[in-house]
Amino acid sequence: MSFRQRTAPGVLKLLLLLSIWLSAETSSAFAQNSDATSADHVYTEQAQSAEQLAEAQRLLKGPAGNPECVWLGRRVVSLLWRDDMDTAFRHLDLYDRFGCPGNHIQAAFRCVVLNGNVNHKDAESQNGRVHACWVNPSLLATPEQPLPSSTTQ
């Protein structure tokens, strides 16, 4: 038996082990990269939420601007918009327990309803609308201008 014939199976085993090891390293590096991306996404969401709470506290005077009232109130309005009444009422009980103003919920929900439909599949647009209506319940979207008629008289 020649040297090549004796070492060929060993070399093949070595190549197989090397390829398995490299694929494991690549997949673990990919997993670490995706974890870092999701951690960055969570951090930006938390920073955005903190900015929104600070904005609401700055713009709203009284208990409606308190962080707990803002957080619970926006959840109640969002749940009402999605027709999840049971959960909305449970959150509303907590909202009342913190001494938050009930009329602000009504005004913010009115604003959301009057500003028309939101894309239900895009949570960011719904959350943005609810937040905008929370900090300024009198906010109304500009009505669309009617198209001029094509008939001339």
Secondary structure: elements and pairs:
Layout: H1 3-59, H2 67-81, H3 85-97, H4 102-114, H5 123-135
- Give me the secondary-structure category: mainly alpha
In DSSP terms (H or I, runs of 4 or more residues), the helix count works out at 5
Nearest-integer average pLDDT: 75
**Strands, total number:** 0
Radius of gyration: 28 Å
Strand content: under 5%
- Overall shape: elongated
> How would you sum up the major sheet?
none
Cα separation of the termini: 104 Å
Helix content: over 70%
The run of helices and strands is HHHHH
Spans where pLDDT lies below 50 across 5 or more residues = 143-150
What do you see in this structure?
With 153 residues, this protein is an all-alpha fold. The protein has a domain of 75 residues. It is 73% helix and 0% strand. It starts with a helix and ends in an 18-residue tail after the last helix. About 5% of the residues have low confidence.
Could you provide a short overview of the structure?
With 153 residues, the protein is mainly alpha-helical. The protein contains five helices and no strands.
Highlighted features:
153 residues; 5 helices; mainly alpha
